Structures are given as structure tokens and as C-alpha cells.
Amino acid sequence: MSLEEKLDKIRSPKLQNQQQTQVVLKAVDDTLEDQKTDATPTGYFAALLALLRQAVSTNVVNKDLATSVVYLLDVVAPFAPQPLLRSKFSQILTNLAPALTFPEADAPLLRPSIGCLESLLLAQDSSAWELSYTEIGPRRAIAGLLNLAVDHRPKIRKRAQEAITTVLRSPPPSPSLDHPAADMCAETALKSLNDLSARADKNKNKKSGPSEHEPAMIHALQLVKTVAAASGGWPSKKIEPLCEVLLNISKSSNEYMAMAAFEIFEIIFEGMAGSTASSKLPRLLEVISELRPSQNDSQLLPPWIAVLSRGYDVSAQIEPDDTFQKLPELFGLISSFLASSSHNIRVSASECLISFMANCVPDSVLLHPSIFDEKVLEKLARAAIDLLSVKYQAAWMETFNVMGAMFDNLRWRADPILTEVVRAIGELRGNDSFTGKREADEIIGKAIRAMGPESVLNILPLNLAKPQAGQPGRAWMLPILRDYVSNTNLQHFKTEFVPLSEMMFQRVIDNGEAEKTMEIKIFETLVQQIWALLPGYCDLPLDLTESFDKPFAELVSNLLYRQVELRPDVCRALQVLVDSNKALVSIEAEEDLMQSRVSKEAAQKNIEHLSGIASNMLAVLFNVYSQTLPQFRVYILKCINTYLSIVPTQELMETFERVSTMLRSSLTESAAQTQAEKQKEKEKNAADKMPPLSHTLMDLVITIAIYLPRDSFSTLFSIASVIILMESDPQLQKKAYKLIPRLGDSPTGQEALAERSTELQQLMLNSAEKVSAPARRDRLAAITTLVSFLPNESLHFIPSILSEVIISCKEVNEKARTTAFDLLVLMGEKIIAADGSTIDNGKVPHMPDDAPAVTANLEEYFTMLSAGLAGGEPHMVSATITALTRILYQFRGSLKRETVSEIVETMDLFLTHKNREIVRSVLGFVKVCIISLPTELMLPRLQTLVPNLMIWSHEHKAQFKSKVKHILERMIRRFGAKVVDQYCPEEDKKLIANIRKTRERNKRQKDAAKVAGAEESDEDTAAPTNGKRKGHFESEYDEAVYGSDEESEGSDISDNEVLGKKRKAAKKSGNTYIHEDEDEPLDLLDRKALANISSTKPLKQRRPGKTKAKVDLDGKLLLGQDSDDDVMVLDTPAQDAGGDTEGGIGAYVKAIKGRDAVQRGRGGRLKFSNKRDKDEDDGMDVDEDDVKSIKNKTGGDFRRDSRGGGGRGSYRGGSGRGGISSGRRGLGEEKRHGSSGNRGGGRVRKSPRGRGRG
Predict the structure, then answer these.
(1) Which of 1075, 1078, 1099 has its CA nearest to residue 1089?
(2) What is the pLDDT of residue 525?
(3) Is the peptide bond before 320 cis (omega within 30 degrees of 0)?
(4) Coil, strand, or helix at residue 933?
(5) What counts of helices (H) and strands (E) characterise the chain?
(6) Going along 840-881, which residue ranges are E strands?
(7) How far apart are the first and last CA of the chain?
(8) pLDDT band for position 1168 (cuts 50, 70, 90)
(9) Which has more confidence, 1154 or 885?
(10) In 3D, which of 563, 580, 709, 701 has the Cα closest to residue 627?
(11) For residue 1193, how far is the Cα from the chain centroid?
(12) Share of the chain above pLDDT 70, in %
């Protein structure tokens, strides 16, 4: 941005605090105009400098004026001529000094002052920087910046550090690489850090709690970091004291300071990674090594080891060979710390050794090692073997990590130097008392990957074929071999494992039909584990051309035919054999090629070798595929696909001819069959669960399709055209439609689709009436592929097929609906891409031949879609509205406003339609309009839209009411409650008020939850208790309103589908209960078990049985009571009206599972319980007035006793059996004392609490 542009922004300020600056700038402009001076950077600079002198001339600084002037100086200074800034340096610095040292100076004044200093310092030459600190020169200015760089105010501190960084990274022209002020900055920063560190240590010794110097020390560390990063490292002379103080700080309990210290080391090393500063590195590493802490210093050793590790990482980048030669010495130095008793020290040491192995072993040592390199590797191996001695037994876990890093980085060079390590770890693994078997397995696995399985098995033989006395069997190594074998010799598998497998399998065969013993089962498992190794051996084998010969291919083919359980591993091995070599050929980066010992040329030869046997292998795989059940075919099809990619073209054509001929004959036979023969064949296929041969062959044709040359596509399309018209076999038709998208995946197929576009379009139009429901989605996917390659001359295909796509928007299948929506969008994009082309309506089937052509544009596409609104079927009209909704949402930014307005107006009319299906789609359209269309377009429509919506707010079917509420809530959220309320009919304004109050209440609750810190608590996922919803929403209504764009249940098409969003996974809610018999647990393997699993909590059934007689305290029998709490309640039934909280579902469950449910007795006879429930009442009803009169007569308050029930002795409206009005004491009723009749009549249990009352 130029100076003039910056000043223009100041002249038209947008913020209040810039008004003063605007006034000052206007005054400067007027001054320059009066003096007839050009408005150049020099003129502005001189005028502003004179103004600054006035602002700070007296003892009292004019803060407001100084702030504005300095701000403008900061803007102008970068554009001022550098000679001017050099010549006026003393004058400018003298005028700026009062502003910088002003006690009440704040960030608005100091930050632009720092910017001015930065511009001044960048303009100075080498001679100016030679002036001493005592003179008015750049060094004094840089001292001021250093003071501000540790200021307690963050903004000022950050601006000063940025200025220092800029200055140090822009040194004046001189022979020196460093900036002249770098030493001064480093010395000042280091002195500040030393002083603060000394004070902190002093306070620490006094144990006076947290140091008040910690913030200042963090600021000082930040300054050191700034200087180190800006000057490309740290001055060599100051490295030693810096390292000492940083290591001292790094053991601080303050994690931030320790991290800051390590970051400084990191920056110093990064600065040295460049060739210019690499000369400082040896001195730095030497100083760090000399500062080695004591052997057991658990605080200082870990950071020291980490710094040393990072240093040699940088050293390996600069001098890889020299660093590698030092590796054994470093390895010995760090490995000694593994004997420490401190866990932290051991972990740091192991991580350092792992870093050495990862970073300090160059690739040249692995590829072409010299004699010296081999000696270094032998020294490392001896050090590694020494780590397994008793001395380091406490650190065996860390030692194993180091061993794993050595195998990972030395790779094939680990053989033979690390053989003793493998032997030692193998012996440890074989010891039953050893607890680190999992870690040992990992190390042995890495050894297998690095050295190869042959070398490891020579050291640790399996001993399975001919076990020898005293030699342990190592079957546990087979899973390790399976996981780690790769890039090795395939011949080893043939010589070692194939004979072992044959011997084991012979044992299984010898067992015959006899019952399998445990030993036979173990042999079967071993055979499977052995062949599970084959995919690893086939991963970039070193000897593929020699080892994968004809006899081995025959062996693999026989396995595929005969050993069904081994097919997955064998197919995966055959697939990996091709894929790994193809992946290597496609690699371009050389460092990736280092991961294997197979070159690109060797990989290409391997592919050519496999290509020679691909035809025979495909024949075997085809046969196996046809004999396999559909659910187990996937891995075979993947393997077929892999070999089709490398088979020679001539053999591929022959294979395709054979398959296509068989498919034609199969289709001919199927067509010639009578209905009875078809039914018989269908029953036969159902018996063996195999699909028809035509289905299998069609799968193979689809797989082959993308590899065929262009001249074979005529046969391919002729097959597809025949099958697509076969409505008698929906599954076969579905497979035929899959062929077109499959061709779209290959360049050759895409060319064929573009070339035969007209033919395929006609095929799709002719087959529209014969498509079966299962094939609908695949047909839409095929049309999508055709539209993608549709030429501009064939745009008439879009209106020809559009009606089918529109009606598919209402398909039952969700994937079909989603595909239809995507296809609608693709058609729109195609028409936009062909904007200006002609659509020949005369070629559209349902239009006359002389129909005028139209120009392709988005508005015309909407016109095509809108034609469905004139359909006679409500289903078609509803589908059209849904399609328009999706397209409007997608292209709302590209449509003309008039078109959008017309569509919205039309939908407003449809909102008054009587058909619910149509209105449901219109409601979705309205919602999309509310959330996506411009406010100025929608506000005028609210006058008619809101009253029309309110008509459906009274409709309870199909969730119309909740949908309307949701739309109104979105309206209120966007346009405000007042606007919506203005157009709402008077009788419906309660709904608007309800929505507004609900939103306000939810907002208050949310704010209260934030204050209480209760948001996102674990209670959100707990099961609801006490009838309260514990989810994200307090009620179903709130969930519908505030649940974003989620549609309520019962909708056939969700909003996410219409808006093109992915469907969210349904959240599981509620609990699941098992209805279980008390006598016998539920058998979950039983097919009928599902009937006993419910989301409703089961009620415990009452079972008849002998119970102990109940007596009162006087020993009298209590009869006719069903529970201990059954006492009489005399009240209206309204009191218990809310007792049944489970509603209809609860009543149903109670009827079939409750205590009064029908049960079967002896002989299967039905039994009914005649015991009345608490709330049963077969007497006459009691009026409220009667209740009150009885209360007055008896003087009782019957509501006071809440333990009441409706037992047989309870009041039944004057039944005469122990009633109250008789004044008699009924059978089993407690005695009354005095006039206290308030406990009521009718066999009430005498409670211990009631004794003595009266």
C-alpha cells in the first residue's frame, strides 16, 4: 500500500479514536499547502517532526497531540529517504526520547514510537553503528528497544521484539555476517536473564514461595529467543554462559520457563542448520558436553540430554559422515545413564539414543558402506549387546525401545551384526517367568522386518517339524512373522513353510472322519497360520521371477480350489504381489525407494513376469469365484481386478470373449425356459444358496470392462442394452446399470461414453418403463455418468429424462433419493456450463416435433422443472416442489431475482392447497426460503406467507403443527418477532408469543447453566430420571425448534437430503430391558429371544402362593388387604388421574405382563385374577358434595392419610360392608377411642404410630 493510500484511509476515519489523527493530518496538509511545499514523504516528515518538537518542547508532554504526530511519523518514516533519516538521526531521536520516556505513556503512544525507531535504525549504515553507547546514535536507540522488549505490557513488549527482529535481520552492508548490534543485544539480554535467574535462586533458597521474578524471567527468555532467532544463532563468545543459565532455568518447576529454555536451544540449532552459521556448531556442542550434570541429577540431566540430542541432529544434517563416526562414543556416553535409578533419566537417555539412530545414520552407510563405516556399525552392535547385561536390568523396557530403533534404522545391515541381540531377546521371550513378552515380540518382529525371516529363524528355529529334546517349540513366532514379514525372499517360504504345512495337513488327513482331537485342531490352526504368512512374503519379494514359478502357481491354484478356509490369505497374497510392485514403479521420490531393496527396474520386471501368468491365474480365479457364495466373493473380486490390470491385451480380449459368450448363452437359455423350469432352477439355487450363473458372469463383465480396448465396447454395450430391458430379473438389471458408472472410472471408458452418448441416451429413454424398483438407484447413477459426459448438442436429453429424476425424489429408498437430488444439481451445473447453447425441444419425446428451440440457461432449467407443477397427480406435484426446493437452495446465488420471486409467489399459492402431500413439500420449500433467500426478497412475502402458514398450524396429522412452529421460529430468528407478529392473524398470535417466550426461557436457562459451569457435564448422557429430559433439549418441542435443520419424525424426505447435507447418525437413547422368567434365564441364542427384549421396563407379575396371615397389634386377623399399605382413601378419582405416567404403552404392557394378566394354570387352562387393583371401583360414583358431607359428619380429613388404597373394606358408596355411615366397627377394624373418628372406617390397619391418638 502506497503512502497516499494510507493517508487517505486516515483522512476518512471509521473509528472515533482516529478523529484526532485526522485533525492533525489536515493541519499538516494545510501547512504544506500554505508553504507551497510538495506533499512528498520528505515534506510530511519535516512538518511532522516540527510538530513533534512543539508537542514535547515543554516539560509537560501534550499526550494527545504527541500520540497523533508519532502515529503519522510511523506511517511516513518507511517512505522517507534513507539519507534524510541518517542525517537527522540525532535530532529525530532527541525529539522521540521524551515520548518514549514519558511516565504516563501508553500503548497508543509507545507502539508508533517504536515503529519510528525501527525505520530509523534500518536506515543507518556501518559507520553509524560504530558510535559508542554514550553518544547519541543507533546503539542508544537499540538499548531503548531492549528495555521496552521486557516491558510488563504485552502489546508494547511484542512491538519492541518485532522491531528488534526486523533490525537484526537487516544488517548494513559489511564483511561481517552478523549485525553490528547483535553482540550488544545478546549481552544485554543475557545479563538481564542472569540477574533474574540469580534473584530467583536466592528466593528459592529462602523457600519464600512462588517467585515474583518469574514473569520478568519469562519476558527475558522471550527477548533471548527473539535475539537468537533474528541473528541466525547466538554469538559464539556468548554461547557458554547462555547454555549454563538456560540449563539452570530448564530444571525449574515452572513448565513454561523450561519450555522457553528448550525453544531457545531449538532456535539456536535451527539458526546453525544453514551453511553460513555452521562454524558455530562444534563450539556449541563442545560447551554443552562440558556442562554435563552429575550422574544422578534427575532435574538437570533430562533437559541436558534432550539438548544434546537436538544438537547432534543438526550436526548430522550439516556433517553427516563426521557425526556418524562420533556415534559409538556418543552411544557409550548416553547409554551409561540407562543404569540410573531415576526413571526420568532412563527415559531421556533411551529417547536420545533412539534419536541418534534415527538421525545420525546416513543412507550412504546402508547402501555403500566403507570399511570404516562397517567398523562403526560393529562398535554400535557391541554397545547394543552390552545394554542387555545385568547392569541395565532395571531399564529393560527402555533398552528394548533402543533395540527396536536400531533394527528400524539399520535395516538389512542389522544382519549379522545384531544376531546376538536377537538370540538374547529370544531366550528372554522363551522364559515363562519373563513379564515383557509383548515388548519382546515387537523387537523380534522388527528384527524379522530388518534382517529377514530366514536369518531370524536360523537363530530362533520354530522346532515344529522335528522337535528335538531340550529345544523349545516356538509356534508363538508365527503370528509375529505374519505381522512383520515383507521385502524378503519368497523362496524361503517355499523351502521352509510349504513342507511344514504339508506335514501338518497330512496329520489332519490321517485323522479321517474321526472326531477331531485337540492335537488335530492345533494342526489345523498351524496350517492356517502358516499360509497367513504368504501375503507378507509376497510384499515386494526379492526373488519373485525365480521363486514364483509354474509349480508354485499350480500349488496356489490347488489351494484356491480345495482349501476354502485358506482362500482369503491366498487371494490377498496374490493381490499384494502385484500391488506392491506397481506402487514401487509409481514412486518418484528417491527417499521412498530407500524403504526397500527392490529397484524400479526390478519391480517392472516383476510385473512383466506376473503378466505372463495372469491369464492362467484369472481362469482359476473366475472358476473359484463362480463356486463361492456371494457374501464371500469380495476378496476374490479384488484379486481378479488386480490381475486384470496387468494381463496382456490379447489375453484380456480372449478372456472377455469367453465370459461374454457364456453370458449370452446363459441369457438365451434363461429366455427359452418355461415358467416351471425357471421356478425349478430358482428352488435349486435357493437350496445351495448360489446365485444364477448369469449374475456371476455379469459381475465378471463389469470388472473386466474398464480394462477393455475401445474395439470391444460394442459387444459390451450390446450386452448391457439387452439386460437393461429385462424386467423379469431385477438383480441382473441392477448389475447392467452398474456398467456405465464403472466405465466412467477409466479414460478409455470415458471416451467410449462420450462417443456413444446418443446411443446410450436412447437406451435410457427406451428402458424407462421397464426399470424395476431395486435397479432405480443404479439407473440414476448411470444417468448421472451420462450427463457428466453429455455434449452441448445433446442437452435435449435433460428435459427428456427430467420427469423420471423428479419423481425419484420421492422414492422410498433413501440412497435413490439422494442420487436423484445430486443428479438434479449436476443437470443444473451442466446447463450453466453450456450457457448459450441450444436445447432442441423437437427431440424431446413428449413434445411436438416443431417445438421451438430454447437457449440453455439456469432460468430455462427452472422452467423445465416447473412444468411438473401442472401435473395431474399430487405425487408428481409434490415431487416437483421438492426438486425445486433442492435446486433453488443450490443455485440461489446465480438466479435472477425475478425468477426467484415468481417461484416463491407460486409456492405461496400452493400453500393453500388441500392435498397434504403437496403442502408437506411446500412447507419444506418455505423453510429453505426462510433460511437461505435474501431478507429484502422475503420480507414482502411475509404478508401472505404467515397467514397461509397459520392455516396448517391447527393440523395435527403428519406433524404439520410442529413443522409450522419450526418455520415460524426460524422466521422469528431471522426477521424478528415483531415483524412476524405483525402479519399473524389475531387468533394465532398466542403461538408467536409461545415461541418467543420459549426462546427467552431457554436463553435464560442457558446463561444460568454457563454461570453455574454446568454445561457439557456428564449428566447430559445419563438416563432420564424423575420424568425429566436430560438431553440437549428440555422438551420434544424445543428439540424440534432448536434442532437446526433436522426434520421431525414421519417425514418421507429429510431436510438434510433436500439441502444436500450428509445424514447424521441417529443418536441412541433410552434403555433396553429383558423380560425374563424368574425360574429360567433367557436363552439369547433362541430365535424367540428377540420377543423378550423391549424398551419398556417390565412390571413384576404377581404369582399365587401361600402368604403369612396379617394381624394387628391386638392379634386380630386383617382380611381383604393386598398390601401392607392398603388403607382406605375417601376422595375423588381426579387425585390419581396423573398416576399412570406411561400412557397407552404402559397400559398395554400392564395388560400382558402385569399382576392381573391372563395366566395358564394346570392343563393349560386360562386363569384370571379376581383381585381388584387400587384404583378399581365397581360401585356407584361418589359426588364431591357427598364426600364433603360425609367428612363433616365424621369429622375426618381423609386426604391427610396418604397411605390409602381401595381395598375391599374401603368406602364403596354405601355398600353396607363396613361402611362409615353405619357407625359400626367392621370386621378387622381397629377400635375407636373417644370421638376421634378421623381415621375413617372400613378395615383399616392399626398402625403403631396411631396408638394413643384420639
Answers:
(1) 1075
(2) 92
(3) no
(4) coil
(5) 60, 8
(6) 854-855
(7) 99
(8) low
(9) 885
(10) 563
(11) 74
(12) 75
Pull the grid cell for residue 505: 495337513
Residue type for position 228: A
Q: Strand 838-839 and strand 1159-1160: pairing?
A: unpaired
Based on the number of CB atoms within 10 Å of its own CB, is 1083 exposed (0-12), middle (13-18) or buried (19 or more)? exposed
Q: What is the overall mean pLDDT for the chain?
A: 78
- Spell out the alpha helix ranges (H) of 387-475: 396-410, 414-417, 419-430, 437-451, 453-459
In Å, how far are 677, 1018, 1104, 1160, 1208 from 1167, measured between CA atoms?
A: 54, 48, 11, 6, 21
Residue 1111 DSSP class: B
Long-range contacts of 975-980 (CB under 8 A, 24+ apart): 975/935, 975/938, 975/939, 975/942, 979/939, 979/942, 980/942, 980/946
**1093: β partners:** 1074
In angstroms and rounded to an integer, the radius of gyration of the C-alpha atoms of the chain is: 44
Distance CA 152, CA 131 (A): 30
Nearest to 296 by CA among 254, 257, 338, 328: 338
pLDDT by residue (tens digit) across 928-955?
A: 998 888 888 888 888 888 888 888 887 7
Closest among 960, 1235, 975, 1230 to 1121, alpha carbons compared: 1230
**In angstroms, rounded to a whole number, what is the distance separating the alpha carbons of residues 894 and 199?**
68
| Spatial distance between the Cα atoms of 996 and 166, rounded to a whole number of angstroms | 56
Cβ neighbours of residue 783 under 8 Å, at least 6 residues apart? Answer: 764, 801, 805, 823
Under the banding of pLDDT at 50, 70 and 90, the label for residue 1252 is very low
Only one residue has cell 473380486, namely 637
Strand partners for 664: none
Residue 1242 has pLDDT above 50, yes or no: no
> In this structure, which amino acid lies at residue 403?
M
Query: Is residue 1204 helix, strand or coil?
Result: strand
**DSSP single-letter state for residue 436:** -
pLDDT band at 533; cut points 50, 70, 90: very high
**For residue 1076, what are the CA distances in angstroms to 351, 1079, 1093?**
57, 9, 9
Please give the Cα distance from 705 to 152 (Å, whole number).
72
Structure-block grid coordinates of residue 655: 478372456
Quick check: helix, strand or coil at residue 1231?
coil
**CA–CA distance from 101 to each of 97, 106, 118, 187, 646 (Å)?**
6, 11, 17, 23, 79
Cα gap 113→1054, rounded to integer Å: 60
**How is 131-192 classified by DSSP, letter by letter?**
S-TTSSSHHHHHHHHHHHTT-SSHHHHHHHHHHHHHHHTSPPSSS-SS-TTHHHHHHHHHHH
pLDDT in tens, 506-526: 988 888 888 888 988 998 999
The x, y and z cell numbers of residue 112, run together, are: 508508533
Cell representation of residue 1161? 394354570
Tell me phi and psi for residue 666, to 5 degrees. Answer: -65, -40
- pTM score, whole prediction: 0.66
Q: Cβ atoms within 10 A of the Cβ of 444, count? A: 25
CB proximity list for 514: less than 8 A, separation 6 or greater: none
The tally of CA atoms less than 13 A away on the side-chain side of residue 605 is 12
Q: Contacts by 498-501 with C-beta closer than 8 Å and gap 24+? A: 498/555, 499/465, 500/462, 500/464, 500/465, 500/530, 501/527, 501/530, 501/531
Contacts 24+ apart (CB under 8 A), 175-181: 177/232, 177/276, 177/277, 178/231, 178/232, 178/235, 179/231, 180/126, 180/129, 180/130, 181/129, 181/138, 181/139, 181/142
- The Cα 212–Cα 203 span in angstroms is 9
More confident residue, 783 or 304: 783
Place of cell 415461541: 995
**Residue with C-alpha cell 457364456?**
662
- Pick 180 or 823 by higher pLDDT: 823
